[in-house]
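Course assignment 3, question 2. Fill in each field.
Student: A.L.
Task: Predict the tertiary structure for the chain below.
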Amino acid sequence: MRVRSRVRSWLRAMLRRSRMESEMDAELRFHMEAYAVDLVRSGVPRQEAYRRARIEFCGMERTKEVCREARGYNFNDSLN
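Answer field:
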């Protein structure tokens, strides 16, 4: 990715932080839910399936942090 496009992407992210955060939250919840449903379909009890899904995603906040770092804009680091 060229520097110019990375800067533009970072600026867009900073300007749309709230929207991006809510979209990321919804997407991660969708994937965690889908994973748990797959586990239930394979015979894992519902409560255990959701526990495994939470473990697999290492907690929502940690997963969000990894996504932010992968996209190149970690809001917590940029504010400090």
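Instructor remarks: The helical segments are 3-15, 17-41, 46-56, 60-71, 75-79. The chain has five helices and no strands.
Grade: pending
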